[in-house]
Request: fold
Amino acid sequence: MTAEPNKFYITTPIYYVNDAPHIGHAYTTILADVLSRYSRLLGTPTHFLTGTDEHGQKVFEAARKGGITPQEHADQTVVRFQELWERLGVSHDDFIRTTEERHNVVVQKILQDLHERDEIYEGNYEGWYSVSEERFYTDKDLIDGKSPEGKPVEKVMEKNYFFRMSKYQEWLIDYIEQNPEFIRPKHRRNETLGYLQKPLGDLCISRPKTRMPWGIELPFDSDYVCYVWFDALVNYISAIGYGQNDEQFKKWWPATYHLIGKDILATHTVYWPTMLKAMGVPQPCSVFAHGWWLTSGEKMSKSDGNVINPMDMIDRYGVDALRYYLMAEMTLGQDATFTEKGFIERYNSDLANDLGNMASRALKMLDRHFEGRIPLPGPLTAAEDSLRDDTLRAVKAMEESIPAMRLDQGIGAVIDAVRSANRYFESTAPWTVAKSGDMERLATILYSAAECLRIISGLLYPVIPEKMTELRVMLGIEKDGIEPSLKNLAGWGGLTPQTPLGKAATLFPRVDVKKKSEQPQKPKKDVKKKMEASTDKKVEEKKESAPEDGLLDIKDFFKVQLRVAQILEAEKVPKADKLLQLQIDLGEEKRQLVAGIAEHYEPEALIGKKIVVVANLKPAKIRGVVSNGMLLAARDESGVKILTIDGDALPGSEVS
Ligand code: MSP
Reply:
């Protein structure tokens, strides 16, 4: 099933209602929000669904401890999610709670139908149950007597009902192989295919009420409730009226994206597709699994006590600062580390310095010299042409980054355009032009700068809607609304001369790192931050022969030829866990090099990155593979980070 361009239906996982929402939950929801907002800008009918998972043992236990009913418990806790989404400006069209009647009816109808058609049968269950994950495991799944996630399990033996999942195994493998977009990114698709190498069992879909009564009752056996995952997955179709409102269901299904975290890949790419197949419902177009937000190298989760509360970050830095950081920082599909210091640095550099400064400089000068109105531009010079080209390149990059799910790259391209606008300001020096009294030239410069800001405000609107609306008010164009089509942004010259500007104000006040950052980022003694040459022993040798005072003569430094390279291809070196083999573009030549970064980067994440390499090393063979050069990377406690180029630089450029 490929995505249908005439509609866009996106879902987030439904969150366990009893967990307090943290940055991880906020991330998936903001991502869905940003994609929905882009889709609406493109004029595509859009439906965005989120919600809460309210059945199951954890809610039942929590309610019992609190001395209230599970429903009361869910009613009290769901508010935390609803309030957070409101605060974050999340524009969902629907919020489903699995305790709602509209969901219960659909789940029961599906259960009844599958039971009647012998897709669900009665059997005996013997297995290991993890209360915290609400999942059964077989003997061979366990690792050291615990679940693969390290959670305690208990032995359970009882009569139960089973869904004939195993009979769809071959079909599913085939389907995944024939539909490369079905599971994204590619490495997650491979993970599911790997999982499907082992025989697939049938899925136990019932829980005896004697053990856990909180769930949707099986329509054919009132002593049982439905397994929480079977119930939860159905939300994606119950919310849009499956079996109840055909017109609405047909309007939105199949989903364009089920966004999920990588922790719930198997349920969404094995259970869900086989359930749909048994029901005779088409598959979603794409299940996209993003990575985890980590703190101190660990997955952020309540049980590990390392969660970051989104409300705290919003209180400190504002909604859009948080939305921006989450979207710009994570490469979709990879893990990312959340640090407050990194948060502040990115905010200060991209928003306060680059975008905020650009807006403030242009708007102040427009106010001073043109009485707060958009001026009529005069003849354009090469500088304006180049600013226009850089800005329109960002429009294209953003358009391409959305279907490619590389929002980080799209945002990066927009910030590059902002930097180019700042450079334009520096080089055309409107303040000098103002002094000289050449008002026509000044009008051209300020019009062009404002036009660039207009386009940028549209491009970043889905990511930071509040601030970009403010910017559009300042530019006097908010009343026009955001362009109905993202494509309109590609036209240069959208600002109308004489339009009165709004009142200019600071969009992104700079944050003082020392005052704000919770943890002063003193380097820990045991962590020696060092520039690290990823694979080559020669670096060690050089260190040993370095002069005693550790200082290098500049002549020696210049012997090392550092150059910019762009990664064209990346793949794992067979039988070497740590090594990646890269094909790089060094401007006038293409080369291959081997780098010890396989534990820190997925090959796909590297493609296109501009890195720094030592270009004049003697070629060496590493595990039988020729390496012609060496990349530079930094290492600290959170892992290895390769050096990349800030902005654009041509492959082959000298680094000095
Ligand atoms: N209720 C199930 C999902 C059922 S969907 C039919 C569930 N809920 S959850 O509350 O545990 O949250 C699930 C989702 O929250 C993850 O899949 C992911 O999208 C998000 N995240 C939770 N912790 C996360 C991180 N540390 N990092 C990024 N996202 C993570 O599982």
Summary: Residues 13-16, 19, 24-25, 27-28, 53, 232-233, 235, 260-261, 263-264, 292-293, 299-301 surround 5'-O-[(L-methionyl)-sulphamoyl]adenosine (CB under 6 Å).
